Amino acid sequence: MTSLSAAAAAATTAAAASRLLPSVTASAARLSYRSSVSISSLRSSPLLSRIFLPQKSSLRRLSTGRIGYSTVSPPKCAASDPDQLKSAREDIKELLKTKFCHPILVRLGWHDAGTYNKNIEEWPQRGGANGSLRFEVELKHGANAGLVNALKLLQPIKDKYSNVTYADLFQLASATAVEEAGGPKIPMKYGRVDVTAPEQCPEEGRLPDAGPPSPASHLRDVFYRMGLNDKEIVALSGAHTLGRSRPDRSGWGKPETKYTKDGPGAPGGQSWTVQWLKFDNFYFKDIKEKKDEDLLVLPTDAALFDDPSFKEYAEKYAADQDAFFKDYAEAHAKLSNLGAKFDPPEGFSLDDSSPKGQPEKFVAAKYSTGKRELSDAMKQKIRAEYEAIGGTPDKPLQSNYFLNIIIVIAVLAFVTSFVMN
Ligand code: HEM
After folding, report:
1. Which single residue of 76, 222, 280, 385 could bond 208 by disulfide (Cβ 3.0 to 4.6 Å)?
2. Where in the cell is the protein located (predicted)?
């Protein structure tokens, strides 16, 4: 075979492979990391890079679902705009000062996220924090009674900030409400993509019932389905330190008590704690004592001190507010991410100086043959390389070993033809 025909054969093989399976370039990239032959070394050869790597600007499907041009540099736009989110946070703080709506905003965030089913992989069928709760069909689910009022409070803020998604706004409002009520700082990330149509709402029945026949096992059924554990169930239940239950909404609680008859906010309902606008550990202290007729204890609240595994945490949180705050903050952040699709995929923090926030945690072994932790510069480089071929490091594209071998043979044939000349 002449060097020309060898080169042509190599190129044809590679091109055919690319046509057969679009992920072939991704497979090549993965192989290159695994075998320590970096994409950069391919790129250093202009001809090879033209054959095996897509060019820096390529037409592909963007994470927003649209088709457009993207570049290897990190995406400049995200599902929500960080500056707008920060302004929205200030507006939420103002809203809280005048409406005292901390509890219902926390409940809104929880009910958007709490539909998540870890056994369903597809988004948005898996449910979770995707803004679906804004649609009437989901607001009408029995468990969501009254939450239309929370949506009405947030809608003017949503209208003001067109580049903030509902999914982010709901979670931002919830975390801000906890923090403004004196609770812990929640390590939140943002960039949640919204569902776009009511047909994408989850079916009714994914949220917990307050009075099931067997409360502890019901809580486990529902929260384990979300991928949460006993500690997280107990910590998250501590959010009932805020707010009230109203018989005309959920059917639970008294129409009013001495703690709620004068508001603040709309009067009435029955609270779990005396100071129901303060985020503290009194929920655990009060349901443990069960002494005050004017304070609410739902069957699912009582289960936290009846079930031996739950009780361990409930006792700890009743005795130690710092322990509660620490576990609550972690569990709340986890809850707020359930089922969410992030753009950029690693999300971003509002409290980080870098525009993209916290970088994702890379597992070195997945991307290099050595087991050492990768340097930040290398992680950035790997991310850019993956994005250039339409993937992300956290979701590597499917590998096809047969095609990988063909590519290696093609490269060898090509290089040999050069050497022979
Ligand atoms: C463990 C299972 C849970 C059950 C059975 C449950 C049930 C309920 C019920 C029946 C209400 C009264 C709603 C009304 O009548 O307006 C309520 C309110 C509330 N829930 Fe839960 N909940 C659970 C978990 C959670 C979690 C995990 C959070 C947050 C992380 C949360 C936050 C709240 C808040 C803040 C309120 C007060 C809302 C207001 O005052 O408007 N709940 N919950």
Report:
1. 222
2. Plastid, Chloroplast
Q: Which residues are identified as catalytic?
A: 111
**Cβ of 210 below 6 Å from ligand 1:** yes
- Blockwise average pLDDT, block size 10, the chain, 421 residues: 40 39 35 34 35 33 34 59 98 98 98 98 98 98 98 98 98 98 98 98 98 98 98 98 98 98 96 98 96 97 98 98 98 98 97 52 50 56 64 58 84 88 75
Q: Helices 299-306 and 230-237: crossing angle, nearest 10°?
A: 130
- Bond from prior residue into 247 cis (ω within 30 degrees of 0): no
Distances (CA, A) of 117 to 102, 191, 311: 27, 20, 26
Other beta carbons within 10 angstroms of residue 16's beta carbon come to: 13
Mutating to test ligand 1, I would choose from 133, 245, 317 the residue with most ligand atoms within 8 A of its C-beta, which is 245
Length of the chain (residues): 421
pLDDT value of residue 367: 52
Those residues whose C-beta lies under 8 Å from the C-beta of residue 147, and which sit 6 or more positions away, are 104, 107, 108, 111, 133, 139
3-state secondary structure of 368: coil
Q: CB of 174 closer than 6 A to ligand 1?
A: no
Whether residue 208 has its Cβ less than 6 Å from ligand 1: yes
105 CB less than 6 Å from ligand 1?
no
SS3 69: strand
Contact 277, 308 (CB under 8 A): no
Residue 396 phi/psi, 5° resolution?
-60, 145
CA–centroid distance, 24 to ligand 1, in Å, is 49
Task: Provide DSSP, 85-96.
Answer: HHHHHHHHHHHH
Find all residues with CB under 8 Å of 54, minimum gap 6, and list them: 25, 388, 389, 390
Distance of alpha carbon 419 from alpha carbon 421, whole angstroms: 5
Cα of 345 vs centre of ligand 1, distance in Å, is 30
Instruction: Name the closest-CA residue to atom 7, ligand 1.
Output: 210
Chain-centroid distance of CA 364 in Å reads: 23
